[in-house]
Design a protein that fits this description.
The protein is built from five helices and seven strands. By secondary structure, the protein is an alpha+beta fold. A seven-stranded mixed sheet has the order 1-2-3-4-5-7-6, with helices on both faces. The radius of gyration is 15 Å and the shape is globular.
């Protein structure tokens, strides 16, 4: 069995990304158009994990204005040049490769990317109890009253988190 590799995503990877999303986050489906737009707007922040020619995971990230990450499955049109933070939009890894370092490799890559771009903060919305996972990478919960309504669509226990760089 070959070991996984991770690399920047391309348009040809989007069907594989949707397949992983359907397995990992069946309650939070985003359209192919949403992923295609993120790839077009900020390809540097879109990675895939591949093993034996199949997409087994992905990470989508981009600059944003905190504390207002884009709503789930929403086209954003553009990324403002004056963004003040770096957002991890989505990280999904199939169960069959969990525990082998794929998520950590992608998180390390985007952390370096964010730091090198001059950002001092990364942020995300953790769903389904994933805040425990994200704490291992230095993220902590941040209460933002203005986000409470937006977090409802992510389900009970959704947490807005930030990490200083």
């Amino acid at each position: 069995m070959a070991s996984f590799t991770f690399r920047k995503a391309g348009l040809n990877d989007l069907d594989g990304v949707l397949t992983v999303q359907a397995v990992v986050f069946p309650a939070f489906q985003e359209a192919k158009a949403t992923f295609a737009e993120r790839l077009r707007l900020y390809s540097d922040g879109f990675f895939v994990v591949e093993e034996d020619g199949d997409i087994k995971g992905y990470l989508v990230s981009h600059p944003f204005h905190r504390p207002a990450p884009p709503p789930l499955d929403t086209l954003i049109g553009s990324i403002s040049p004056d963004c003040d933070a770096y957002y991890v939009h989505d990280l999904s890894v199939l169960p069959e490769i969990r525990g082998r370092g794929a998520a950590g490799a992608m998180i390390e890559a985007v952390t370096d990317l964010a730091r090198n771009a001059g950002f001092t903060t990364m942020a995300l919305i953790a769903v389904g109890g994933a805040d425990i996972f994200w704490r291992r990478f230095g993220f902590g919960p941040v209460s933002v009253q203005a986000l409470e309504e937006r977090l409802v669509i992510y389900g009970e226990g959704a947490v807005y988190m930030e990490r200083p760089l």
